[in-house]
From TrEMBL:
Signal peptide: none
EC nos: 2.3.-.-
InterPro entries on file: Acyl_CoA_acyltransferase, GNAT_dom
Domain of life where this protein originates: Bacteria
GO molecular function: acyltransferase activity
Protein name: GNAT family N-acetyltransferase
Gene3D superfamilies: 3.40.630.30
Domain called N-acetyltransferase: residue spans: 38-187
Record key words, sorted: Acyltransferase, Transferase
Amino acid sequence: MKNYPLLDVRVSTPTLELRGATDELLDQLAEVVRAGKTHAEPAPYDDPMSFYETDPDLRVAKWLRAIWRRRGAVEPDAWRLYFVVMVDGRPVGEQTLSGMHFATLGTVATFSWLSVDLRARGVGREMREAILHLAFDGLGAREASSDAFVDNPGSNAISRRLGYEPNGYDWGTRRGEPGLLNRWRLTRDAWETRRRDDIRLHNIEACHALLPLS
């Protein structure tokens, strides 16, 4: 998209690609959302979350509206990049990267979900490694954070294996009920010890031109 090059930013690994979440790609990914393939038990998402909507069409509409609201909000105190996860040329999930007061703190947070069809195959870890490469190598981040409910073994295991350190606990709600969250912290030094040489960044100059990084 020549007039908004942030949507042309991509991250590629040997097994998947993160592509900027254009409306065309979101329209394709919406079929995964409509089919309910975002769900898991125990429930992994904190409130508010459109995926808990039972009506398929309304679920998709709420999900899209949330992305549209946040995708264009690029301010010094908060910005978020949305990516569609592509495996074998088809959309299978979503990966985001958020910066809060990034120019001052250099910190980012990640969020993701993956279709049930591809879970427990290493794709979730590959997605996280790809977005961390963008954060640290591409944007110069100092630290990345993540959190997950304590009964979400997949997300917590990925954080542990990628070198995140436990960073305390927090409380969130899911479907209106309280849930305890593990908080995780990954420093740049810890990431450097595990950094990969087979992840490629594409059109990264758009981030430096349009995001408030410094």
